[in-house]
Amino acid sequence: MTNVDYLDQLKWRYATKKFDTNKELAEKDLEKLLEAIRLSASSYGLQPYEVYVIKDEETRKKLHPAAFQQPQILDASYLLVFTAITKIDEAYLNDYIDNIVETRNMKKEDLSGMKDIIMNAVISQSDENKTEWAKKQAYIALGNLLSAAAHYQIDVCPMEGFDPSQFDDILGLNQKNRATAVIATVGFRHKDDGLQHADKVRKSKEELFTRI
Ligand SMILES: Cc1cc2nc3c(=O)[nH]c(=O)nc-3n(C[C@H](O)[C@H](O)[C@H](O)COP(=O)(O)O)c2cc1C
Prior knowledge:
Blueprint: H1 6-12, H2 27-38, E1 49-54, H3 57-63, H4 72-75, E2 78-85, H5 90-104, H6 112-123, H7 127-151, E3 155-159, H8 164-171, E4 178-187, H9 205-208
Antiparallel strand pairs: 1-2, 2-4, 3-4
Residues 14-15, 17, 70, 157-161, 182, 200 line the site of flavin mononucleotide.
InterPro entries: NfsB-like (IPR033878), Nitroreductase (IPR029479), Nitroreductase-like (IPR000415)
Cofactor: FMN
Keywords: Flavoprotein, FMN, NADP, Oxidoreductase
């Protein structure tokens, strides 16, 4: 759909309920979606999340009941679990600054002002606030995934219908300073999934936008 109008791509996409288990997403196409996630914008560029890309059938079988038995968990080619990083401390910020120094060939001293700003605005916040903030950033990456997948004609179901604490337990996330924010399944729609033909239900422009 590369030459198709972008809005038509967005109309083509829908939250897929029934995936075709016989159509497997190729590794190279998965990589494109992961790159779209990697390129997502985030507050201060801190990308305070990690995405688990789950192919393993056994793991998905364990997660399935924790996602209210939604069939997408098992039937899609991949399950993506967007986790928020729950330990956002000075060491985390230092790693980010090192990345900027290396990527842009800069001097660390030139970034000390920026470091102070992020220390005050983000790092000094409570762990609870930081985790909530990190989850919001993960949702931006999810949005990017949805748009990129529509562009490449790959199907996704974004999902909040799961128990985050069970996901955290099953994936051992607490020990890794991670907490499940949101999940998505990726693959190809089954031709029998009737929702692909349904008209989009959306608010009118008048309701959704206030122009001042
Ligand atoms: C954050 C989020 C969570 C969602 N959770 C689920 C879910 O658990 N299961 C599901 O089948 N659909 C889920 N959906 C899909 C929405 O119901 C769907 O996006 C919405 O009804 C609009 O329809 P469309 O995406 O097909 O255009 C979720 C969507 C979003 C963005």
